[in-house]
Amino acid sequence: MRRERYAKLQHQLEGQELDGLLLLGTGNVAYATGAAAPAVDSARAAFMRQVAVVRPGEPAPVLFTPYPDGAPSDVEVHGPLYPDLDDGAAVMADLFAPGARVAADEVTHPMSRAFAGLELSPASAVLGPAKLLKTADELECIRAAQHLNELAMADVQPLVRPGVRQVDLTARFLRRIFELGADANGIDPIWQVMPPTKAEGPWTTHGDIAFPTPSSERVLEEGDVIWVDTGIHVEGYASDFGRTWICADDPRPSPRQHDQARRWREVVEAVLALCKPGVSALELCRAAIAANGGTKPWIKHFYLAHGVGTDSAEMPLIGTDLGEAFDEQMILEPGMVLVLEPVIWDDGASGYRSEDIVAITDEGWVQLSDYPYDPYETT
Predict the structure, then answer these.
(1) For tag attachment on the chain, is the N or C end more exposed, with fewer CB atoms within 10 Å?
(2) Where are the beta strands (DSSP E) in 105-182?
(3) Residue 40 confidence (pLDDT)
(4) Domains 2-132 and 136-367 fall in the same CATH topology
(5) Domain 2-132 fold
């Protein structure tokens, strides 16, 4: 699987006439090298980061890491670099000849100074096409990561009762995922209490409801509507779990809440009815909007669907603010993975949000997630 991924990166470097690929993002480094790194403390992850270098024609990537025990044996391994420091940035610049054309997924302030003699471009032009279509092995990794995530959430959901803190749920979730064999936690687990109305906030710069917001010591109360979102990594591949739960000793939804879940299911079914090779992302968006009575069923600063792989959100991105022209040229192909996450918002009664993962096959799609929608009925 690593050889296949590396070959894809080499193909993109050659086709785009690039002299190198420089990667700092955890998911991107994992894709290029297969290297693992601990990921629970976000501050450490930002500073004690790994750096990967891919040069055209070389048999293996180069990895600079503070965690050499997580590196595969067929990768050239060196000690850590620190892209946020001038010394580290200078060493990174010296890895390439003056004037080299290098694609990078991040440029820190020290790097921007040290790399003045290089021609930089976004690594997304390399990574996007390479990561877009998953192999059978990659799909199985995503399925395995999602299954483990769902097993952990099955232990957490019964704890969602009045008087429990968000951090109590996080503690249980993190303990359980590592007991089950996770390599890393990808995002801070989200147990967001949604306000009944948008006017009650929190807000975004778009003027829309904010999601996600970080976990805290907030105590859950009777009747809270909670949007849940978690993501873990297994063998370098991410999962993405999303459901709506109700905090109550008897968490039965009201008829209005049942209706929200029903409408969510109608949107998802309308999209899945079109999911097959040759269909555009724009067609999926239009089907989702039509199923929701002409209103866009997702939050402005999010999307109808996104991909998942070594990152919890990667191409394809469907329904973003990149616009209809972008969605129109995004054509479904076998191997694409879609995390469908429409939102049904009912001002005055919060809303309903869940996430389902599917992979596009030669003739349609196959489900990669398998968690129930309790306590809601969606059929």
Answers:
(1) C
(2) 119-122
(3) 52
(4) no
(5) Creatine Amidinohydrolase; Chain A, domain 1 (3.40.350)
SS3 177: helix
Query: Domain residues of the chain, as ranges?
Result: 2-132, 136-367
Tokens of 287: 């089907």
Cα–Cα dist 358/151, whole Å: 18
Rounded CA separation 103/193 (Å): 40
DSSP character for 99? T
Residue environment code for 66-102, b if the CB has 16+ CB neighbours within 10 A, otherwise e: bbeebbeeebebeebbbbeeeebbebbbebbeeebeb
By DSSP bridging, strand 184-185 and strand 351-353 are unpaired
The pLDDT, as a whole number, for residue 188 is: 87
In sequence order, the 6+-apart residues with CB closer than 8 A to the CB of 98 are 117, 118
Mean pLDDT of residues grouped by 10 in the chain (379 residues)? 96 97 93 83 64 96 94 94 94 95 96 96 96 96 97 97 97 96 89 90 75 85 96 92 96 94 97 98 98 92 93 94 94 98 92 97 97 83
Nearest to 308 by CA among 192, 210, 226, 230: 230
Instruction: Report whether 330 contacts 307 (CB < 8 A).
Output: no
